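new request in #modeling-help
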Amino acid sequence: MKVRRSDRLIDMTRYLLERPHTLISLTFFAERYESAKSSISEDLAIIKRTFKYRGIGILETIPGAAGGAQFIPSISEQEARAFIEDMTNELSQEDRLLPGGYVYLSDLLGRPDVLRQVGRVIAREYVDQQIDAVMTVATKGVPIAQSVSSYLNVPFVIVRRDSKITEGSTVSVNYVSGSSERIEKMELSKRSLPRGSNVLVVDDFMKGGGTVNGMKSMIEEFDSKLVGITVFAEAAFSGRRVIDEYTSLLKVDQVNTIDKTISVSPGNYLDKVFKND
Amino acid sequence: MKVRRSDRLIDMTRYLLERPHTLISLTFFAERYESAKSSISEDLAIIKRTFKYRGIGILETIPGAAGGAQFIPSISEQEARAFIEDMTNELSQEDRLLPGGYVYLSDLLGRPDVLRQVGRVIAREYVDQQIDAVMTVATKGVPIAQSVSSYLNVPFVIVRRDSKITEGSTVSVNYVSGSSERIEKMELSKRSLPRGSNVLVVDDFMKGGGTVNGMKSMIEEFDSKLVGITVFAEAAFSGRRVIDEYTSLLKVDQVNTIDKTISVSPGNYLDKVFKND
């Protein structure tokens, strides 16, 4: 059955959104809808225009009968800024304050709407870079890694402080916890990351950077390359950070456990990502 | 600027897909596109038809000027069956065999395409039930919980065997690990689950059911209600399971560590969910 344009547009939109960074050929769509390639090309041009206008992302189209299209998720500066401002307000709520000056984040990192935006925002930063895997450390980094991985359409791997029998053989590295100066160990399943991968590191919170630095060593152990580091929130840190090149969506400037106040501001993300736009 | 139908269909499709189980009013769409409500109603009817025909899900439309639409993600029996068969083949690969008869799953549970389908499949089972939160235990259940939570559009909560300072006050329960008969402890942040929640429990793997039983006790501690239990894979278990009512996508029937063979078959999901369709 030949499919009408309106039906094609709806199904193609869904199909492309679910498969970011994947080239779908004109031939595939033409067969799926029993329609001429010229009609499919016109459909793709309409989708491209709407995706751009609505800030959904970029539809890269490759012209010609052998061509096709791939969807590159993105986010506009305006939407990214609004999201980061929202999160700044959320994090500033004084009831998030925990003993030791930590900030409660688990509710936010369990909300699908928040995770969707975190994923879009972080994926936007690396849109022009080759990334083969997203890496994080268990447990609270996992939701962030998963969301970013879905927008980049690459797998994510979880480094663990306690390896389980269900991981098989692992590679372990020692690292110095930046805040406590203690030596810790982290492990990654040997088969989870192919040698020579380009790896993006994400995490929920960074203080001294020790954990992230551990992941950096882990990436070296796998003969792989660190492409970038992005964290949801960084804490103000008085000592010397072991990591100097990173991106943060949010910055927890000051935590006062006596007055019970938290002061949060946007991290360096907006400046880094939209500076040259 | 009045928006053309084709542009509306594309943007509405995206907008609805990103906000499952959320009623979007006709008024909202009419203002967004500066179009008449009657045109929006026609658009929604087209989207509804395509979503149904392609097995994407159900678009529930509420007629009248005060009406709107909400997207209920679903999956066809055919697509669910194909996915489960795919996973059966994946899991049967002998190189997944780990010492102790465990099966390596981490690669699958780090792949965005697999997680998308796991989420759709599990969400389909509970489409007619009220669910307020998805619960799992760290670490490997997290990706499953997150994906299900995104299709049900409710938050997920992570029970931990080792609570961290960043969780704040926790409630802890003891449980008997079904396979080893050891007494273990799990904890959940006090503020992560409101009293009286309807909770869906998901996990990656179930042997004796001890961990899942622990989560059941946890739900009681929060004066909440267990709605259902669904696991990605269950293992054949010779003892008496502490949990008898659950759904599994896959069943690991036999693991032979000497011959290095794994025998995997579909779990009870397809029978339970599509029996009455």
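bot summary: The first helix of chain B runs from residue 5 to 17.
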